[in-house]
User: What shape does this take?
Amino acid sequence: TFYTNVSSIPTLHLLNATRSAWETFEKLAGCHVGDKADGLSKLKQYFSRFGYISSSSSAANFTDDFDDVLKSAISAYQKNFNLKATGKLDAPTLRQIVRPRCGNPDMVDGASEMNAGRKLLRTVAAAR
Amino acid sequence: YSFFPGKPRWPKRNRDLSYAFVPRNNLTEEVKQVFARAFTRWSDVTPLNFTRSESVFKADIVIGFFSGDHGDGEPFDGPMGTLAHASSPPTGMFHLDGDEDWLISGDETNRRIMPVTSVVDLESVAVHEIGHLLGLGHSSVEDAIMYPAISGGDRKVELAKDDIEGIQYLYGDGGSSRRSETSGGAE
Assistant: This one.
């Protein structure tokens, strides 16, 4: 649907913003390494889609275990989105995950320059 | 800013790019104008030019709205979630999720248009995806157009310094550097 201006959007539509498929991730809040929780396999598919987990591991193999692969994916994601790299599913990280976004991956072949500038700044600062 | 692996870009001999819309979407002129504005934001700061074509077969860039699995191995996921995706140069593939509700607004500024909503600003997404079509990857700078996420109700259409530096790394400024300095793009 195309709305040509804000006033043409039905009020009901404004009130109950369509819940996206990713809203279910919010129930994983607080999970960390060693946990097993229903839905972690879907979160791994999410991270695989955006390049944080190597696509060689097919979605069918993803388990609901919070393993080291997931932890490092979360840390890389947190760095790319300027979040504290806790490696855990804390509230700020989950809030970011559920936001609508571009379908292009953030990382390709496990590498990402997305936050290169910040790294560069850190290197320069360290050099100083 | 970042690039696709190998930093692909449109070749020097092909800086006047054409774009066309998938006919079966039957888009109105009003919707097509949104994309024309989005292309202009990038042509303003580079030597690139964009012209609309009526033939998807001859155009460098093809734009279409599709729902769910649409045959490119990257299915869309219904309302919200992934909004659109685009290929790196010189492929020219630009797909938007047909299950989204899109807002067409001519507002010139970046700002929050509405409280939480599932209506997404079409021009904001178009400017971002055109960045990919020209060779830019994602950026961690939240003000940047190439930042991967946007909330329903937000509008972000002005190129930030990060976007301009990235695209001019690939194409130069086409003698428009003065314009880009005065364009007041979001810092």
The beta strands of chain B are 16-21, 49-52, 61-66, 84-86, 93-97, 101-103, 111-112, 119-121, 154-155. Chain B touches chain A through 50 residues (CB under 8 Å). Residues 177-187 of chain B have pLDDT under 50 and may be disordered.
